[in-house]
Amino acid sequence: MEWSFVIEKLILVSVIFVITLVIAMYSTLAERKIAGFMQDRYGPDRAGIFGLLQPLCDGGKFFFKEEIIPAGAHKVLFIVGPTIAIITACISSAVIPWGQELQIGDRVVSLQVADVNVGILYMFGVIALGVYGIMLGGWASNNKFSLMGAIRAASQSISYEIAMGLSIIALLMVTQSLSLKEIVAQQSGFVNWNIWAQPLGFIIFMVCAFAECNRVPFDLPECETELVGGYHTEYSSMKLGLYMFSEYINMFVSSALMASLYFGGYNFPFMNDLGLSANWITIIGVIVFFLKIFGFIFFFMWVRWTLPRFRYDQLMNLGWKMLIPLAIANIVLTGVFTLIKDTYFSS
To answer: Which positions carry the signal peptide feature in this UniProt record (predicted)?
Structure first.
């Protein structure tokens, strides 16, 4: 293995890691600004111009607050919980293609950390591991409210991962690939975006993404009105910060995944008709990709300050009695349309 390749990947990993943390950090400010706008009030506006330094103040508070571990807690697992949550959140973006290739001198640089031919399976595996951080943190706290939140998180994850996986099966029937790079490359034209072929699958996937990220109206694991703070009731200082950061990172990665699977990723209309160099097309594509991601993040926040949370029985009924049957029906319809297409239009 060439050292230049290793250095190239290390630089790419570092850039993506920094961008992820910055977006997660300023998502906390955007959340409060959007909430303020929708509630006809100002959000944070004291720290810096327009409150732009507020996330730095919040981060400093997390770093310098006293570390508290409850006397009855399992000390090792109490620390392992948030550690697993933040690690799984950060490594989930390794297979996302952020743009086309860049030509730098004699080297062709890929804007994807790892081009795994089973990238979707990797994403699902990492997402499934993330709930263990919540479960361990809730159980190790030795607090009944934390344990209840952890149990809710586990059952919610099991329920909605099934529907999410079934929605992806229908998409795979259309794309014939598990590689995120290939799936994005197939959507080179606006009419080729998978949202037109899989509108129902996208809606199911998006609803499940809300549940996987524990966002309103699916934030039952940390429901303040019932469980104080849910699974992180006993957490303080930077360990609480890691849980909060992992939630916003998961929201960012989920937005990137939805943009990649259904909205063309870095592709944009008329990208091949601009007459620009390949490098400029790649740079514009990266910018467009992040604009799509920011659009989804805004939608996550808009829903939070618009809809009330479900009761727990409503959440379970939606997952098992509505989304899973709809996802199965979507697979059947996709199979029927694919068969008709191959039979009558293949020639």
So the answer is: none
| Distance from C-alpha of 173 to C-alpha of 46, rounded to nearest angstrom | 52
Question: Per-residue pLDDT for 1 more than 70?
Answer: no
Q: Containing domain of residue 202, as a range? A: 70-344
Cis ω for the linkage preceding 199 (within 30 of 0): no
Residues 163 and 155: their CA atoms lie apart, in Å, by 13
Domains held by the chain: number: 1
Does residue 75 have a pLDDT over 60? Answer: yes
Instruction: Give this prediction's pTM.
Output: 0.92
What residue type is 311 in one-letter code? R
The amino acid at residue 53 is L
Q: Six-digit token pair at 199?
A: 């509108």
Residue at 10 is within a domain: no
The residues facing 102 across adjacent strands are 109
42, part of any domain: no
Q: Is the pLDDT of residue 186 over 60?
A: yes
Give domain status of residue 63, yes or no.
Answer: no
Buried b (16+ CB within 10 A) or exposed e, 232-267: bbbbebbbbbbbbbbbbbbbbbbbbbbbbbbbbbbb
d(C-alpha 157, C-alpha 174), whole Å: 26
- Residue 61 within any structural domain of the chain: no
183: which 2 tokens? 């799936």
